[in-house]
Each structure stands twice: as structure tokens, then as C-alpha cells.
Amino acid sequence: MTTATLYQQLADDLSSAINLGTLPPGSRLPSVRKTASSRQLSLNTVVAAYRVLEDRGLIEARPQSGYYVRSRLPSPARGASHRPGPARGTDGAVLDLIGAALKAQQTPGYIDMALACPRGGDFYPSAKLARLMGQVLRKQPGLVGNYALPPGSERLRTQIARRGLELGMALQADNIILTHGAMEALQLALRAITRPGDTVGIESPTYFNLLPLFTSLGLKAVEIPTDPQHGLALDALELLLQEQRLNAIIAMPNVHNPLGCSMSTDNKKRLAALVNRHRVPLIEDALYAELQFGDALQPAVKAFDQDGWVLVCASYTKTLAPDFRVGWLEGGRFGEEIKKLKFASSIAEPLVLCETLGAFLESGGYDHHLRALKRRYALHVDKVRALIAEYFPPGTHATNPSGGFLIWVELPENYDTVALFHAAIAERISISPGPLYSPGGRYRNALRLSCCQPLDERYVGALQRLGELARSVAS
User: Fold this and answer.
1) Angstrom distance (rounded) from CA 459 to CA 111
2) CA nearest 255: which of 157, 174, 373?
3) Segment 111-121, tens digit of pLDDT
4) pLDDT 10s digits, 315-328
5) DSSP secondary structure code for residue 117 in this structure
6) Cα–Cα distance, 235 to 248 (Å, whole number)
7) Spatial contact of 411 and 393, defined as CB atoms under 8 Å apart
8) Residues 221 and 202 sit within 8 Å (Cβ to Cβ)
């Protein structure tokens, strides 16, 4: 192993011990010299590892005393506080709040802790993609002079199918539909499997952009409790299926937005079995599935689908090229209907962009980029959780995500994050209050924070100020 690998491995080992509670908050780490001796490492290697842990916010150095594990935020309590209720449309106040949050995100000069899209050129391989695009155009100059037609880039579809194997999915390139981002994939899937007036089961909390989408399609939602650590409550879902109350389901089993949690493999198997047995389609949103922090990716629910009742979609907007807006969808037994809907709505995706992405995936560059990106997000999540513990009111809880860059924060019950949102907007800080993530406006004491931007002085200062503002919105 290289020195860099050794210190990174030591940092990861100690980070795991801290997260598992083997090294509890307040405990003293072995001295640099003792660790070097026991691990047979150089002093410089141990010092470098301890610095990584400091950067992650996991430990702190105390003068003339050594290194200590910092106090850690508790995760939100297991179990949801509500049962599935009646089907309903989205509350108008929630839609208005979504509009206000999106407007704030688009206003120059704001410190944005709300947007779940990495900002900053070093989060994307932009220069490499630009060079690849030039190579693609030199080899195929006619691309820009032709209309793109379905099914689109075979190179990209082949690479998507190949990468699906890492999530346990046996996909075929011919069945993959290229879309204009993940939102078009979700819309096409919903149009294929539902009709206006139908009821869709959603996780609670859920991805907030589903709510205006449901409204536009005339769909009603049933909120299904979703555990901050374990994901969708399958007992509640099974009861809804037995009562035939659902026409479809949407879920994010891997790296949930906004909770960051992932379901266990056993629960994914059970979920696949439930939808196949009851013949109710499940749209699996795998947008963040490749951002799992573990080296080996945990499988998708689609990996256990028997009869095509699981549709799976994702995109490359969060990891590679947000402005390309290239996503994909595998529609299971609904694939042919979705192909017709795609042709009727937007025909096909630009070949230049898709060929460029396909070439990047083909080269192995994406795997290298993902490894670096996941390490960076793991560090950011640890550091931001430590800052929340330092600056936010006592009694605050926060999720410890299994991947990605989103943290769900729960303040004590008497705090109002909608009021916090407005107070923060007045100081040009943008956040996402909890009611955005529920058609019924639940989670008034919660908020989602993103840490997919440089954690510079502006970000840290804004987080500190947000903690101060939070104290002013307690009832």
C-alpha cells in the first residue's frame, strides 16, 4: 500500500469505530506514537489520518492532552409518528412554500443549503467531458446535423445496462429509455401506470418535486411512514396493498431523499415480492444509488423483480453533467407504453450529449470520479453533522446518511422551520423546511440541509447563523 492508502485506511477504520460506538463521544484516542507502534505505521501516517478525522468533524485535538472523539448528533428516533391516512391532493400552502423555496434558490447572492445539486466545477469532471465531446464530434461530425431518433445512443444504453449489474440488476440495453433527466423519467412512468384520480403510495417524508408533479397529473397521494434509518414501513404498505388502496408506489430504497437512509437487502426482497404478488407497479427512483458510501453497492429492489412490476430510473445530473439533463428509465412490463409516450412528448435525447456520456462511462473515468466524489461527500456529511451538533439548539437530531449529500435535521417539537425558512431568507440563506416533503405539510420541526458545495467560511458562517436563528423560532 502507498502512504496515502495507509493513512486513508486508518482514518476509515477509526471513523467506523466512532460511528459504531466502539469509540464513544468523549473518549480519548490512543496517542500518535502508540497507534503508530500498534499498527506498524510511521508517525506521519498516523498524524495524517488523525487530520482527516479532524476534517470530518469526528475528533478534536486538546492541547497537552491528545485527540478526543467529538460529541455526536443522535439520529432521529426509529419509527414514524403517523399511520397512512386517506388519499389526498397536495395542500396549496405546501405548493406555495415549494415555489418560495425554488425562487430563493434562483436568487443570486444567497448561500444555498437547500438545493440538492452540487455546485462548483470541482464536483464534476467538466474538462474531461468537454475533451470527450470534442473527440466525439471529430469522429462523428454529422451528429449535430441530424435529428436524434429513438431509441437513442446505443453506447450509453449499453453502459447503463452494464452498470446496472453493480446494483444487482440484469437490464437489457434495448429496454432502456433515455429521458430528459430523472423528472421526465418519473413523469413518463406515472403516465404509463396511472390515470387521473388514481392513488399513489409515497414515502413520508418524500422528494418534494413529486408533489407538483402529482398535482399536474391529477393524482392523489397516500403518505406511508418512512423510518429515518430503515426506510419504507413495509407492514403499513402491505396493509394498503391488501386493502387495494393503491394504484402505484414511488420509493427511493437506496440513499433516500431527504432522509439519506437505505433499506436492508431483506426488506428490498420483501418489497419486490409485495408488488409482484399484488400486481401494483413500483417506480424505484435510483437517483442516488451509486453514491452509497460503501465500496460494494447494495442492490436495487429491481434486482429482485420477477414479473416486471418494478420500474427503475436515474440520471447523471447529480454526478456528471447537470446541464446535459440525461436520465434513463427501464419500464419493466410497461416499457412499450413508455416508449410511445416518450416519442409523443420529446422524441429522443441529443446524441452528442449521450455519446459523450457513453464514452466517459466506457473509459472507466466515471468509476474513478465516483470514488473521489463519495469520499468527499462522506467527509462533508461528517463535518456538517459535527457543526450542527455545535451550533444548533439542544435536542436537535440529524440523520447519518448511507450515501449522498443530504442531511435531515429534526429540531425539538416546539420549533417551527417554516418560520426559520423566512428568517433565513431575510439573511440571504436558503434552506428546505420539512413541510415541503409532505403533501399534508407534516414535519414542521424538520428541515433538509445539503452539503454538496465547498464547506468554506461562508457556508460554515451561514450554518452557525442558522443555528442562532433556530433558537428564535421556538414557541
Assistant:
1) 7
2) 373
3) 989 988 887 77
4) 999 999 999 999 99
5) S
6) 17
7) yes
8) yes
